Every structure is written in C-alpha cells, then in structure tokens.
Amino acid sequence: MIVHPQDGGMKRILTGIQPSGAFHIGNYFGAMKPLIAMQDRGQVFALIVDLHALTTVRDASALRDFTRRAAIDFLACGLDPERSVFFRQSEVPAHSQLLWILSVVTPMGLLERAHAFKDKVANGLSASAGLFTYPVLQAADILLYDADIVPVGKDQKQHLEIARDIAVKMNEAYGEVLKLPDAEITENVATIPGLDGRKMSKSYGNTIELFMDEKPLRKKIMGIVTDSTPMEAPKDPEGSTLVELYRLVASPIDVEQMKADFRAGGVGYGEFKQRLFEAIRDYFAPFRAYREELIRDPAKVDDILRKGAEQAREIAGAAYGRVEQAIGLR
Ligand code: TYM
C-alpha cells in the first residue's frame, strides 16, 4: 500500500489543464471548480500542463502568454496556493522522465484506441509521436503524485482509464510501485456545451472564455445557435444549450423561471440570451478584482508557481526514485 503520512492521511486530488488558449467555461465547470471545491477535502495538486500544450501550440510567445494567463485565471477563481500545490508541469523533470519508462510498458494498441488522438487527427492536427503518446505523459502526471482522485470532464474518461491500465502494467511487471487513480466526473457538468451545442472545445472554436469583456461576451452569447421557433411559440427547454449554460451560472429560481418561460411561449431567444449573458457576467464578477491585482503583479504569480514547482519536484522526485529502484535503474 502506498500511503502518505506527510499529508496526514488526506486523499490526494490532482488535475491538469492545458494552456493551449484561454480557459473557457467548459474547463471551469468540468475541472477547475470541482478541484477548487475539493481543497477542503484533501491535498490538491493543480497542474498547468504546458508540455501537453506543445502538441498544439507552436508559437513560443503564445505559449508563454497562455501559461501566464492560465495561472492568473486559476488563482483568480479560487485556487489557493497556501493549501494546494500549483505548478507548471515543465518545471518538474520527473514528468518527462517517467513518460519514457511508462511508454516501454504501454501497449501500442492501448494508445491506438484513444478517441482524443483519433479526433485530433481527424480535425487536421498532424499525427506526431508526441500527440500519440500524450496519454502516457498524462499518466505520468497522475502517477507521480500517487493521486487518489482526478476530477475531469467526461472527455478525459478514457485518458484516465489508460492511466490506470498503464499503472496496472507497471505493477504487474514490478510489484506494487504505482497507485491506481480514480476519475471523478461530476455528472451534471460532465460535458458543457459550446456555442453550437457540441461539446465546448478550443478545437471546435465554440468556446466562451472566462473573464471576457462585456461587449465580446455579449456578442458570443447572442451567437449561440438556436432553432427557428418564433417568439410567440412555446419552446422545449430540454436539451437547449441556453438552459444548459444558464443552470451553471444562475440561481435555481431563475433557472425554473427560464424553463417556464420557454414552455409558455411569448419570450424570444434574444431575451433568453440576454439573461444568460448577464448571469455569466455576474457569476465571474467577484473574481475580477483579484485577477486584476494578479495581472498587475507578475512577480507574485511567478513566485507562487516557483514555490509550487519546488514542492512538486520534491514529491514527484521521491515517487520517481521509487520507480527507478523498482525497475532496476538504481
Ligand atoms: P484540457 O486542457 O483539454 O481540459 C481541461 C479540463 O477541462 C475539462 N473540459 C470540459 N469539461 C466539461 N465540458 C467541457 N466542454 C469541457 N472541455 C474541457 C476536461 O475534461 C479537463 O478535465 N488531457 C487533459 C489535461 C491533462 C490532465 C492531466 C488532466 C494533462 N495531464 C492529468 C487530469 C490529470 C486535457 O486535455 O485537458
């Protein structure tokens, strides 16, 4: 059994987000918010997975900007660096080192079945070796910290199963050296829809970013795809993207009101979009002041990430040492 007396027996909870663009509300409700809420339940690890982002971002200054913005947005939304270990993946060499070791026990077939790889290639991304081994690096992220729980959106379910399978392969070959993690997918936020009703995703270009200015935010919301039911006619709230998004950011009473107005007819989609716009704006408003403060103080953000990386290097280094020992490198 792998136990961590240094955490006082607390569960370890870990997730990673790619700085491959600005964070969107799918990232927030699918992974960031659940992780932030779990800071009371265990030892949280939050990773900005910049090495993963290299599979899609080929512009150095863009990657730097996305990474900084990712850090600021995560902190602004409530990630507390005093309680959680918050860091950039690339600052902890053990991730890349373990990637290699895991890759030698990972069957090709396991990776060939990965939907995310197939989808990305189908969407025009070139099939690099890095894109193919992406899930192995993700397994390293998780296994280096002996994570118990990994809160993610539904699109990451298969990647977590792959991480578990890889851990099983290692343990079969070398004895119990890695801990098997569990995904934690919060059912009602498993797949947040985007502007066109498909899963919100950077690769579909249908995202609503966190902390947009009012004008572009309103424009995006007004662009949400709806059917052509006329204003007077009753509308079906079930499966409506507007209602799906509204219930994330509005009070239960307001959500019931919107559903009732859908059914009653006489209210057009423009009015519903206006309500959604206001609710999103108001939901994130309380985070804005701290975000502005962090934007004005880049040294503070650097300092938080540097300290986080130090903590992470120590924890990951110990786990990596255990692996090296188990496999005969040391
Ligand atoms: P990424 O960066 O694509 O997304 C980050 C998190 O946001 C969730 N998410 C969503 N949830 C609900 N609805 C949506 N529309 C939506 N879009 C994104 C994702 O499920 C994810 O939880 N491979 C991972 C990053 C990663 C990772 C890790 C995750 C690297 N190492 C270790 C967990 C543990 C990814 O691409 O996430």
Q: What is the total tally of β strands?
A: 5
CATH architecture grouping of the largest domain:
3-Layer(aba) Sandwich
Q: Note the main sheet.
A: 3 strands, parallel
Q: Structurally, how many domains make up the residues?
A: 2
Could you give the distance between the termini?
Answer: 22 Å
- Mean pLDDT over the residues: 95
Sheet with most strands: strand arrangement:
1-2-3
Bound molecules: tryptophanyl-5'AMP
**Poorly predicted segments:** none
Q: What does the radius of gyration come to?
A: 21 Å
Apparent shape: globular
Element-by-element helix/strand order = EHEHHEHHHHEHEHHHHH
Please report the first level of CATH classification, the CATH class of the largest domain. Alpha Beta
Structural class: mainly alpha
Short description:
The protein is mainly alpha-helical and 330 residues long. It has 13 helices and five strands. Tryptophanyl-5'AMP binds at residues 14-18, 26-27, 30-31, 49, 52, 138, 141-142, 150, 152-153, 155-156, 159, 189, 191-192, 199-201.
List the helices and strands and how they pair.
Blueprint: E1 11-17, H1 25-37, E2 42-48, H2 50-53, H3 60-76, E3 85-88, H4 94-105, H5 108-112, H6 115-122, H7 129-143, E4 149-151, H8 157-174, E5 182-184, H9 214-222, H10 241-249, H11 252-264, H12 269-296, H13 298-327
Parallel strand pairs: 1-2, 2-3, 4-5
Helix pairs in contact: 3-12, 4-7, 4-13, 7-8, 9-12, 10-12
The site of tryptophanyl-5'AMP (TYM) has 26 residues, from strand 1, helix 1 and helix 7.
